[in-house]
Prior knowledge:
ATP binding; P-loop_NTPase; UvrB_inter; Penicillin-binding protein 1b fold; UvrB; Rossmann fold; alpha/beta; 2 domains; globular; ATP hydrolysis activity
Amino acid sequence: MARGNNLILDIFATCQKYQDFCSQFPILTNRGSFKPLEGSLTTILGVSLHNRLLNQVLVFVAPSSTKALDIEADLETLVGKDSFVSYPQREQLPQIAKEPDREITGMQIESLEAILKGRSRLLVTTLRALQERILIPETLDNLRTTLRVGSEFGFSELVRHLEESGFKKSSLVEEIGQYSVRGGVIDVFSFGTSEPFRIEFDINKIQSIRLFDVLSQRSDKIVPEVHLLPVSFHENVKTETFQNRSLVENLPGESVLFNLVETPWKKVLKASWKTISTMNDRLSEEKGENSPIEELMLEPMTAQEKLNSFPRIDFYSRSDSTVELDNEPPPNINRDVALLQSFIEQ
């Protein structure tokens, strides 16, 4: 979102201490720190800084999934839901269940593709998600598949592509990561689309593409093309073309880390490694199967080194150059309209 479209951001940008900081970071120094801010001011600061950066990715590093959701809510209000992407951390080990967590993995792949292709420069994630590794292609050049009306993307070819991309065949498409086949029609629910879509074939030629409602299963809106993003790469992969990599290993080199984690990173990275190692060992004892821990997580010391290579802004690491912005918590309105009006008038 460009400056000038949001009054809150425009007013914040006039703060002299903020302007002084921006004149130094990241050109003259790649480290900066602020005294913790009240409420959503931290997110406002991040967006304001992001608007001044030239083609650099700004990464909100949240301490937890819950805090990440709070940041996402702020961003939806400030810049709109299409102006940022989220890279969530896993909720379970990928080998615990026969079926991977398609929603989490799909969001990770979609966000990574958007950042690396330059479609988004604003990312929300957690420190653990930065350290976790997922299976991705060595090159992401052909990650997104476009299906167009009139193109000869074969019926059988599409079914095979969906299977290889981790989609699960179902009698009825109701969730992201599912597809169904009925005669010459294929229904798909992929990341990158607000609704599932129905593709009708005339032999091996795409005749029509329609979005449809999950509840009624009725198709209405006709679209000229749709995009497919893989849900996972754990099925039918060629090991020589795929590798386990973490988010921090894939971030563009000039990305700015906006650190909201109060605990020292070294401690958090070690704790995450230990937790996943314990879960992995327990799984091996119970089921006789596990994955090498190095395929699941980036080793703490290596993760720390890679994280330290990026420009960073901290909120819980004080120094002589820490910026203190004058701010105070908002009043407790508690549905008092008269109090709200008085506060706005002030």
